[in-house]
Amino acid sequence: MNATTTRERPAPPPAVPSAASVAALTAHPLRAELLRGFAPWAGAAVVCTLLANMAAKSDQWQGSWGETQSSLHIVSALLGGPLAAAAGCWQGGRERRRRTAELRATAARGPLAQFLVASLPLAVWVVAGYAVTAVATLLATWPYVSAGRPVLSALPADAAFLAAMALVGQVVGRLVAWRLAAPVLALCAYLVLGIPSYQTSGARHLSPASADSMGISLPVWWQPLATTAWTGGLAAAAVLAYAARRRYTALLPLAAATVAGVLVAQTGDAMWRADPLANQQVCNTSVTPGICVNALYKGLLPKVSDALSGVTGRLEGVENLPVRFHDLPRESHPDEVRLPMLDPLGQSVVRGELTDPEQYAWEAAAALTGRADRCEARLTDPRAYRVDDAVTEWLGPGPLRDDMDRLSEEWARGQGADKELAGVAADRRALARLKSMGGEERRAWLSRYFATVGSCDPGKVPAL
C-alpha cells in the first residue's frame, strides 16, 4: 500500500499597503477638515458676500485708499462677522446632526484638541476669504489713486475679528441644540455690531463696525493691536471656558480683553489722528483765482482746472477776485472761496473723473458770487439777487437754466402770476445785458461787482 503524502501550501505573503493608503491613515485630521467638508464652502461664501457688496458701491471708494479700506472694514464687520458666526454655529452642530456626539466624547484627544481640529479650518477659510476680498479691492482702487497709501496694519485686525466670530459661533453651535441657531445668531450679531454705530460715546468703538472713516483720518499705531486683543480675547475666553480641562484658564484672555476694551472705550475718537495729506493742497497758480485741490486727490487737479477753465477764462483781467479756490477742511479765509466738494466719492467724482464738469463749473461760479449768502438782506433784495444770479450764469452756464426759466414762465402764466412772470423776464434781461457788454466794459463792471461780493448791503451791488 502506497502512502500518500500531503503537502501543505505555503501561506501567501502579507499584503504591502500602498503609499496612498498609508498617507490616508496617517494624515492629520486638520488636513481633511481643511480640504473637504463645510469649511471651504464657508470661505467661498465670505468671498462672494464681501465682493458683491464692495462691487455694488465701488463708485464710493475707488480712487481713495482711505475710503476703500473704510468700506472694506465696515462690510467685513457688518456682513462678514455675522456670516462667520453663522458658519461657525452650523459647524459646531455637525456632530449633533450626525448623531456622533457620543462617539466623539470617547476619542483619545481632549475636548480642546477636538474643538480646535473642527473649528480652526473654518476660521482659516473665513480669513482666506477676507484676504482674497482685501487684495481684490485694493487692486481695484489702485489705478485711480493719486496720493497716500493703504493702512496695512488694519487688515490683520479685521481678519482676527472674523476668525474670532467663527470661533464664538462654533461654541454657540456646540451649546445650542436648535437648527435655526445659525441664522438667529447671524441676526443678533448684526444688531450687536450695528447698533453702537449710532452712538456718540467712546464705547461705540467697541464694535468693529463703528470705526471712523479712514478717508481723512488714520488709526494710531496701537489701535489695531487693541481691537485685536478685545475681540480675540473674548473669543479665546469663550473657547477655553467651553473646551479646556482647566476652565479657569479662560480668565487670562478675558482679563486681556477687558483691559483692551477699557482702553478702546476710554480713548474713543483719540484712537484716530488726522491724515497729514488732508491738511495739504496742491495748486494751479497760473490762473486767477488759483485752483487748489486737497493733496489726497492731487491727481484731480488737471481735470478740475479743465472744468473751471471757462470760469477763469471769463475772469481774466478782472480785479477784486479771491486769490484762490481752496480745498482744506477749515473755514475760508477772507481772500479765498471754497472749491466745490470733491468728496465723498461717488457724487462729483467717480473713479478719478468728474461726473459732470458743466455742473461743477456752475457750482464754482456760484461759490464766487455767493460768499454773502449768509446775509439775509442781500438774499431778499430782488435786484441784488438778480445780479448775483446773472453773474453766476454768465461765468458757468448751468445746463438746466433754460429749462428752469421755461418751466417758471409756464407756471406763472398758468397761475396768472404777473409778478413772477415779470421777474423771469427781468432775470433774462439782466443776463442779456451782461452778455452784450464789450470786453473792457464788462471787466470794469465785474471788478466793481466783485468788490461788493463780501458786503451785506444790497445797495452797493452795481446795477445791471
State the main characteristics:
four-stranded mixed beta sheet; two-stranded antiparallel sheet; single chain; 58% helix; mainly alpha; 464 residues
Number of helices: 19
State the low-pLDDT regions, or none: 1-6, 19-26
Strand order of the largest sheet: 3-4-5-6
Overall 3D form: elongated
Q: Please report the total strand number as a whole number.
A: 8
Helix fraction bin: 55-70%
Largest sheet: 4 strands, mixed
Report the span from N to C terminus: 149 Å
Estimated structural class = mainly alpha
Strand content: 5-15%
Query: How do the helices and strands follow one another from N- to C-terminus?
Result: HHHHHHHHHEHHEEEHHEEEEHHHHHH
What is the alpha-carbon Rg in Å?
A: 34 Å
On the 0 to 100 scale, the average pLDDT is 86
Report what the structure shows:
By secondary structure, this protein is mainly α. Helices cover 58% and strands 5% of the residues. It is built from 19 helices and eight strands. It has helices at 19-26, 29-35, 39-56, 65-92, 94-98, 101-105, 111-141, 154-175, 181-194, 223-243, 251-267, 301-307, 309-314, 357-369, 376-380, 382-395, 401-415, 418-436, 439-450; strands spanning 217-219, 272-274, 281-284, 290-294, 324-326, 336-338, 349-350, 353-354. It has a four-stranded mixed beta sheet, covered by helices on one side. Strands 1-2 form a two-stranded antiparallel sheet. A hairpin with a 2-residue loop joins strand 7 and strand 8. The model is unreliable at 1-6 and 19-26 (pLDDT under 50).
